């Protein structure tokens, strides 16, 4: 449980940093000025400011259920393979692997804070480091290609290996065997 709390805390800190320091009102003004009046933009930013805190409660719940679902599937796969382990150990391994998915967020923060601080909202939305999406101009891609190209990235593959490794360490099983379990569950 302590790993989960650390994961959630780091996720919230990164989210607050993005919302407060990177995605400032100026970034939204610059992006929305062409489409909306100043009063409309003010209303949108007031709404954002009023309700943004809700995301800090929803995000941990979504993360919890995502990890819970994955841990349940892996536990079921292990159980059906006659490998008896506690669900809490499988859950712990899944939480540990989830830290890999914080890396692209951290890279995004570093990139837009120090490397390209004069970014637009469109730049921020279309920045997916080490993904297939980053190899193409988003305007040239059909919209339905965006999600699959964003999902095909180094961090997802790293997540599979991290999950297999954490399962291997926590459950004291071979890495290759756990990699097969992870790949079959994905």
Short characterization:
With 186 residues, the protein is mainly alpha-helical. It has helices spanning 2-22, 25-32, 38-80, 87-98, 103-115, 121-125, 143-151, 154-171, 175-185.
Evaluate the radius of gyration: 20 Å
Let me know the average pLDDT.
92
How far apart are the first and last residues' alpha carbons, in Å?
A: 24 Å
The low-confidence runs, each spanning 5 or more residues with pLDDT under 50, are: none
Topology order in helix (H) and strand (E) letters: HHHHHHHHH
The counted number of beta strands is 0
Number of domains: 1
Summing up helix and strand content along with how strands pair, one would put the structural category as mainly alpha
Number of helices: 9
Strand fraction: under 5%
Shape: elongated
The biggest beta sheet reads:
none
**Helix proportion range:** over 70%
Transmembrane segments: 7-31, 51-78, 90-111, 157-175
Keywords: Membrane, Transmembrane, Transmembrane helix
Organism: Belliella calami
Protein name: DUF1772 domain-containing protein
Structure characterization notes:
The chain has 186 residues and is an all-alpha fold. It has one domain. Helices cover 75% and strands 0% of the residues. It contains nine helices and no strands. The two termini are 24 Å apart.
Q: Topology, please?
A:
Elements: H1 2-22, H2 25-32, H3 38-80, H4 87-98, H5 103-115, H6 121-125, H7 143-151, H8 154-171, H9 175-185
What are the key terms here?
186 residues, 75% helix, mainly alpha, 9 helices
């Amino acid at each position: 449980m302590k790993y989960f709390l650390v994961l959630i805390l780091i996720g919230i800190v990164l989210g607050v940093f993005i919302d407060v320091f990177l995605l400032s009102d100026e970034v939204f003004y610059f992006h929305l000025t062409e489409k909306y009046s100043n009063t409309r933009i003010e209303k949108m930013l007031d709404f954002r400011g009023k309700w943004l805190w809700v995301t800090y409660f929803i995000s941990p719940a979504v993360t919890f259920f995502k990890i819970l679902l994955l841990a349940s599937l892996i536990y079921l796969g292990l159980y059906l393979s006659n490998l008896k382990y506690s669900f809490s150990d499988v859950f712990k391994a899944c939480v540990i692997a989830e830290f890999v998915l914080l890396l692209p967020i951290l890279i995004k923060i570093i990139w837009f804070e120090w490397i390209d601080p004069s970014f637009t909202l469109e730049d921020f939305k279309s920045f997916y480091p080490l993904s297939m999406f980053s190899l193409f101009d988003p305007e040239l891609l059909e919209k339905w290609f965006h999600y699959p190209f964003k999902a095909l990235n180094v961090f997802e593959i790293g997540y599979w290996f991290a999950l297999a490794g954490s399962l291997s360490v926590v459950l004291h099983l071979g890495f290759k065997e756990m990699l097969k379990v992870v790949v079959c569950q994905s």
